[in-house]
Amino acid sequence: MIELRQEIPCDHRDTENVIREAFWNHYTPACNDHYLIHIMRDCPAFVPELDIVAVEDGRIIGNSMCLKSYIVGDDGKYYEVLSLGPIGVLPEYQHQGIGGRLIARTKEIAKELSFRGILLCGDPDYYTRQGFISAEKYEIRNAENMYADALLACELYQGAFSEISGCYYEDEIYNVDENCVKEFDKQFPTKEIVYGTPMQKKFEMMIERVKPCQR
Ligand SMILES: CC(C)(COP(=O)(O)OP(=O)(O)OC[C@H]1O[C@@H](n2cnc3c(N)ncnc32)[C@H](O)[C@@H]1OP(=O)(O)O)[C@@H](O)C(=O)NCCC(=O)NCCS
Q1: Cα-to-centroid distance, 166 and ligand 1 (Å)
Q2: pLDDT digits (tens, 9 = 90+) for 158-198
């Protein structure tokens, strides 16, 4: 049986391995997400209750994490929201609903913690199946004041975003230092780096799909 629970310190390296396996060569050659989660846990915006692992027979097979972030509203106010990600499931366990369960559990706990909603940059083809819609529908733009196809939003209660329009700022920690990633990755078994896969090309095009806000 696959169970979901909060990550604990002795899980850290196993979880980093799972995220590395899930993301390796997926959106980019190699990946930086295992290093990202390594440093996220010490970030002031980290929400430990939303650091969830999927476990089968004591083995970690999936993980998702969130950070607090904010929208600067067009009314000048700051609105706290959550950023979801990374989320990953070991390749051999994908397509069994584990990713969907991690997202559903995240929403449940985030509601209990009274968060307004969740934003993320990700593949609309996947997240629209998980209750996310284009942030543009709420007039939420990225930090460059652009509407982005990959910027997706999920309200945690009805109307949570309908009164807010503005720019979404995620934590700086998501902009990882590539040299630190390379150094950190030396602690893991060597893996082949593959360039130019169809998914990498799709991702590159996806993140470029932005349009200016006319405000
Ligand atoms: C995305 C991910 C977490 C989903 O986990 P999962 O356990 O496979 O998810 P679920 O089983 O709940 O849902 C899978 C469904 O979503 C679909 N799906 C997954 N990624 C998709 C994508 N990028 N585009 C479209 N559909 C996608 C699958 O085709 C699957 O449908 P199917 O089972 O009918 O084929 C997992 O595929 C993964 O770790 N991917 C690599 C890392 C990643 O992309 N993380 C998300 C970063 S934005």
Answers
A1: 29
A2: 999 998 999 999 999 999 999 999 999 999 999 999 999 99
Per the structure, the count of domains in the chain is 1
**Per-residue pLDDT tens for 88-129?**
999 999 999 999 999 999 999 999 999 999 999 999 999 999
Model-wide pTM > 0.85: yes
Confidence grade of residue 213 (pLDDT, cut at 50, 70, 90) = confident
List all residues 6 or more positions away from 11 whose beta carbon is below 8 Å from its beta carbon. 53, 60
In a domain, 88, yes or no: yes
Going from the Cα of 85 to the center of ligand 1, the distance in angstroms, rounded, reads: 13
Pocket of ligand 1 (CB under 6 A): 22-23, 26, 85, 87-89, 94-100, 122-123, 125-126, 129
Round to the nearest angstrom and report the end-to-end CA distance of the chain: 51
How many other β-carbons are positioned within 10 Å of the β-carbon of residue 8? 11
**Which residue range forms the structural domain that includes residue 161?**
2-171+195-207
Decide if 78 is inside a domain. yes
In a domain, 181, yes or no: no
